[in-house]
Amino acid sequence: MKKGKYAFGVDLGGTSVKLGFFTSEGELIRKWEIPTDRTDDCVNVIPDIARSLRGEMEKEEIREDDLIGIGMGVPGPVQPDGYVEVCVNLHWHDLYPARQLSDLMGGVPVELGNDANVAALGEAWKGGGEGAEDAVMVTLGTGVGGGVIHHGKIVAGRHGLGGEIGHIHVRDGEPEQCNCGGYGCLEQVASATGIVREAKRMMQKSTEPSGMREYGDQISCRTICDLGKSGDALADETIETVARYLGLAVSTIALTVDPDVFIIGGGVSRAGDYLLDKIRKYYDSFTPISKNRGRVVLASLGNDAGIYGAVKMVL
Ligand SMILES: [Zn+2]
């Protein structure tokens, strides 16, 4: 049993920092947010976080000795020793943010993780995964992120590539280039941006009438999902294509790390069972070897996944 009764979870994002005050059992006592100060290449961010945490400690009348530690997720790759070479979104270079925060907090232990991995840990622990020891999260947002949890811990990998599910190659013949330099990454078809692009291609290559045509270039991912759900054939075919590639990625990962559960999160996952049922169908067809394998579920913590995962790193 670790010393201390409380812990903090911090989710550092490009526009705001989410903070959570937790018991040693992982119960959330209070959560709040502060803006990310982007001036001077974000040099004030860590001191701001320390000040905010100290304010909470005063309010709760607790001392450094009462703290087990602080976990923090940051938007960039984190080396095993806590080194952050570059954090594009925050203009950070060559930093040890955990060490800096720990120094400002009187030596309280601080654990650092990549935000996508940390969110995966939160969802595995208290969200869609409900206590899963082994989980893989796929986050479908503007891009496609992910995280791999094994025995309750983040698998960041030896080179920071662990959980970079969005850049798994799934599609041959893709003519456009991905942000990573590749052609045919999962992100190019299954992110919100990718789904919109897929819908536009569908409209171009067929003359079939569709509700999507009314929106033209302004079509959104949400509209495509809503139309697909309501029976629009072309929109449904778009989501079918998206789900096929997601099913392929899920099947490949199942046969690599075989987790208890796959957690699908991010804005696109609001399409709910309509999307999940299609992913499951392709996952089934690509993994005939056994029915006894990881379930596919929806994420459930929303924006709180980061603070839960962050605090879990120190509990
Ligand atoms: Zn890529």
Helix content: 25-40%
Tell me which ligands are bound: zinc ion
CATH class of the largest domain: Alpha Beta
Total beta strands: 12
Q: What is the CATH H-level superfamily of the largest domain?
A: ATPase, nucleotide binding domain
Question: What report would you give on this structure?
Answer:
The protein is an alpha/beta fold and 315 residues long. The protein folds into two domains: 127 residues, 2-Layer Sandwich (Nucleotidyltransferase, domain 5); 168 residues, Nucleotidyltransferase, domain 5 (2-Layer Sandwich), CATH 3.30.420.40. It is 35% helix and 22% strand. It contains nine helices and twelve strands. The strands form three sheets. The chain has a five-stranded mixed beta sheet. A five-stranded mixed beta sheet has the order 10-9-8-11-12, with helices on both faces. The radius of gyration is 21 Å and the shape is globular. The N and C termini lie close together (9 Å). The mean pLDDT is 94. The protein binds zinc ion (ZN). Zinc ion (ZN) binds next to loops. Zinc ion binds next to loops.
Set down the secondary structure blueprint.
Elements: E1 6-12, E2 16-23, E3 28-35, H1 45-60, E4 67-74, E5 84-87, E6 92-95, H2 97-104, E7 110-114, H3 115-126, E8 135-140, E9 144-150, E10 153-154, H4 187-190, H5 192-205, H6 221-229, H7 233-257, E11 261-265, H8 273-286, E12 295-298, H9 305-312
Parallel strand pairs: 1-4, 4-7, 8-11, 11-12
Antiparallel strand pairs: 1-2, 2-3, 5-6, 8-9, 9-10
Helix pairs in contact: 1-2, 3-9, 5-7, 6-7, 7-8
The structure holds zinc ion.
The site of zinc ion has 6 residues, from loops.
